[in-house]
Write a structure and sequence with these properties.
Blueprint (H helix, E strand, L loop, with lengths): L1 H50 L8 E5 L2 E5 L1 H49 L1
Antiparallel strand pairs: 1-2
Length: 122
């Protein structure tokens, strides 16, 4: 009777360990992506701060691949603001995903704890 219980617990622990490792990797990836998005956001913010005081008649170029395209100051400014907004949205999504992953691991751990407690009670 003890052997099937041990096998069941062993299997549950193996599943939990696999889930924890997978989740930790996903959380690290999300952290890396958040850091990268924060850098992009800061770069766009600093560039916007430098572009804003320039006169409207200033010629501005946008880098596209290996060439540059003449753009108006308003277009450049709008693109920079859009880049910041997009980065903010993606950061929020990643934070929510990270929270969900951490919560799912905690729930799995709690389930195994409950299983252990019920085994000890029998």
């Amino acid at each position: 009777m003890a052997a099937p219980i041990d096998l069941e617990l062993k299997k549950a622990f193996a599943e939990l360990q696999a889930k924890v490792i997978d989740t930790q990797q996903k959380v690290k990836l999300a952290d890396i992506q958040i850091d990268q998005l924060n850098r992009i956001k800061k770069h766009a913010s600093l560039t916007h701060a430098e572009v804003t005081p320039l006169p409207d008649s200033t010629r501005m170029y946008e880098g596209v691949g290996r060439m540059f395209i003449l753009q108006s100051k308003d277009e450049i400014s709008n693109q920079l603001m859009e880049k910041q907004k997009t980065a903010d949205d993606k950061i929020k999504e990643l934070e929510q995903k990270k929270t969900y992953l951490e919560r799912s691991v905690k729930e799995a751990e709690d389930n195994i704890r409950e299983m252990l407690m019920s085994r000890r009670a029998h």
